[in-house]
Amino acid sequence: MTERIQEFLRNRRNEGHDVEPCLVVDLEVVRDNYQSFAKALPDSRVFYAVKANPASEVLSLLASMGSCFDCASVAEIQMALAAGASPERVSYGNTIKKERDIARAFALGIRLFSVDCTAEVEKIARAAPGSKVFCRILYDCAGAEWPLSRKFGCDPEMAVEVLDAAKRLGLEPYGISFHVGSQQRKVKAWDRALAMASSVFRDCAERGINLSMVNMGGGFPTKYLKDVPPVVQYGRSIFRALRKHFGNQIPETIIEPGRGMVGNAGIIETEVVLISKKSDEDEVRWVYLDIGKFGGLAETMDESIRYAIRTPHDGAEMTPCVLAGPTCDSADVLYEKLPYPLPVTLEIGDKLLIEGTGAYTSTYSSVAFNGFPPLRTYHI
Amino acid sequence: MTERIQEFLRNRRNEGHDVEPCLVVDLEVVRDNYQSFAKALPDSRVFYAVKANPASEVLSLLASMGSCFDCASVAEIQMALAAGASPERVSYGNTIKKERDIARAFALGIRLFSVDCTAEVEKIARAAPGSKVFCRILYDCAGAEWPLSRKFGCDPEMAVEVLDAAKRLGLEPYGISFHVGSQQRKVKAWDRALAMASSVFRDCAERGINLSMVNMGGGFPTKYLKDVPPVVQYGRSIFRALRKHFGNQIPETIIEPGRGMVGNAGIIETEVVLISKKSDEDEVRWVYLDIGKFGGLAETMDESIRYAIRTPHDGAEMTPCVLAGPTCDSADVLYEKLPYPLPVTLEIGDKLLIEGTGAYTSTYSSVAFNGFPPLRTYHI
So which residues are the signal peptide here (chains A, B) (predicted)? Predict the structure, then answer.
């Protein structure tokens, strides 16, 4: 929570514009985060994961600082280019792409693509001939708060075949990628993944394929309720793992921070719409906010991400609350299995601040579910 | 799947407009559904649950047929009024409302509000004096495919207190409401809920509060993979339960179909973007579509709603597939715990038709997650 955000919210309230929830992102924090990554991993190129927060203000700032961009769609590629990134600073990092979208990206100058199977390599060979590809390998993500499914990546053995196919089809087998899981709080998670990566490098070399890049993905955490290690610790640990597994032939590396770049830069202001109990005997109060799962807080799915929440009554006695959103959807409940402690003095109409909401909020917002408008955002 | 939708999709394809997924809703089916409800429950007023599909074409059609509207927000109220409904045909059916939104609804002529606690009654007494209120009671929803949480409603005993408060504060304690759970396939579910309702009627009468309305909510199913009973069976069963529990003093009744009104009227056309395996040994193929959880299929959450899917290869041998969406989000997987059988001959680029998608799809769509545009919709 920065002074700049506090002042912005104060002014908004004074002008009477606080009738809907909003996200405020402090670009100074994004700037600091970029510098921390650049300093902690000086030999890695930073590809910001645009999907975390594609606001033009964020993209322009990062482009001006020299960041590269990891894009999930042609629309994101266009946004990165519009923000000032040249095409060689952009990767099409989604392993799932329509062939016509690959062709559109190629026409825009993009030459770096992600794959995890031979069928995708074939599309790229046809629609983006000669491009560089990196193959994503499966990794099991222990220790991540938002562990990834098996959706992306293939077994390391298959990765060798995929990169071999790329070479045969005239593409440049550039390297491999992995993802240690989002909000990864174990700095050592990268060690095991880099061991796998180096083994794929060796298997490829035996087939005459010389890889040169490891994309170490994202996963860098932002602070929610629990403290997280500073990015410099991640940097040191990753560097040690690179030395350990690649010796004196350390490859080019890429990192793709998203949450770690913008998460702690944002605050959502929300209003308490209702406080109630279901019966006179109930211990737990229900607190309903004007934002929920469908208004931007999708990452509370399965109560995965537990945000820190500030209230005007902090310091008062706390009682457990079920926290829910404003829609007529019974699934729109944020925290229930593990109730959230909030002050007993909390009142209808109070404004709450949900911290660490700069990433994966604004674009998750539904178009108009229950008639509620998408989350309003301000980047200051 | 109607002839009209088939023809529409054929034309769209011939014109080359099929580059993105889309939802097509056949208004003739909506018309038939409305008539079925009106015939099956001739003494109930139909309040269409606008949140299920708020397209102006759907609202205008239903308004012209005499439907009333259950609205979750002021925006939905405005849409219902714009579609031609007069204010007395509109209820503000969300139990969670900001006081200033109640005032806005009141200014638009709305006089019927839903509550489930005294705090909400107090807001309505201040912002919409003299209005009718109905209190939602908790019901446990056994038998529903999308069972509701405890988010809405209060214990029956508390409902009596809430309605008593309404009376004391100058409101009209009009009745009670319940919801048997969405996609409720047990016609008898309403029997137990109506027993509860009649008991609240009696308890209120003892305090001198004479209720006159039971809002029996929605929950009427639409056909996905399994067959569902026709609405006429629900009508008969509900009528029997009303007679059983209310004798010769049957109250006014309201039903709020949403899914049952529009679900089977819609088809989503989607494209197969990628088919792959994670390793050579894997039995299960991964099939990636250009629509997923964040493009409109939010109800596949926890694999709750299992849609019927048609392919151009129906009749061929089937193999189990994990079905996933196109975003870089590992949670964007539709069916994995119980893999979905699809033809072995399925190919990248094939168009699939997802049936029963007229409800709870278009507005759930995210604004721009991963840069993908919201679901395109056509109401024909």
Answer: none
